[in-house]
Amino acid sequence: MDFNVKKLASDAGVFFSRAMQFTEEKLGQAEKTELDAHFENLLARADCTKNWTEKILRQTEVLLQPNPSARVEEFLYEKLDRKVPSRVTNGELLAQYMTEAANDFGPGTPYGKTLIKVGETQRRLGAAERDFIHSASINFLTPLRNFLEGDWRTISKERRILQNRRLDLDACKARLKKAKAAEAKAAAEHELRLTQTEFDRQAEVTRLLLEGISSTHVNHLRCLHEFVESQTNYYAQCYQYMLDLQKQLGRFSGTFIGNAESTSPPPAATSPPAVAAATLPAVPTIPVVPTIVGVPSTVAESVLNPNEVKPPASGTRKARVLYDYEAADSTELALLADEMITVYSLPGMDPDWLIGERGNQKGKVPVTYLELLS
Question: What pLDDT sits at residue 239?
Fold first, then answer.
């Protein structure tokens, strides 16, 4: 019991001594032991690393999970050491809605078919997003959190101990200056040697931890490369999924539009005044093959074999292919990006399609895959 009382009294005395030394330093009434310039640079570098790591961590969390409520929920699960429940991504939820809408509208209708196609792509995008978030969390966010919750806490603890050792050292120096009697000076000098040794030992421990920040930077650099790699793979997957979807929609767009029912008659065509027509600039047009005799123009495309069609005698246009295109059947022409082909239209043909020729090959091609040249 007496030992505990003495220890409490000693601790209170040390605390009071440090508080007095700190206050007098702030008031400019006491001297302060300064750390060397290299040590101060290490401290500033450590503080800078901690501050920017916190900002990068928080903003990356926002990037991966924009919903603040969801971030709070995930934080609580982590603190409770429980597994975060799987969450449906926005893309997967949109895919679900599109699929359900297609079933209601009719999966065999043009709109229903398109909803199913787009919904499937959205599901794949959502799955890719989930994989990217998981990879980024493990390879990038976790190392940053480990630094802030592990290494940085250790550094902060040792810095506080060093600060206390420095206050004890300066307080001893002050008592030595105030000592008058020889016995008091001898006791103050002995105490100063002890506090100086403790300060030097703690300064070395803290220095080693601060120099370890360089290893932290190397580790975070490696994690940053892995984050960029994950993000690159994610966006590459998304691009490929959307490119595949674009090809599918381009392939079926003619069927969808051709099957759509017209709800109102087309507006009556009016001829512009002769003077106005004369002032209009010349605009290149797609040459049209004359209507086949005995075949209504509205069904000409459906019964026409492109290989049997002859191009107009003059006025065909050149077109540059923008993307690769895989022919769906023998009536279509497969395309390769950047190649040049000849195109023209047929009476009654869907405006989203043209007849394309490349040497002896001929077939329908989607307009969205072409850049028409004058």
Answer: 95
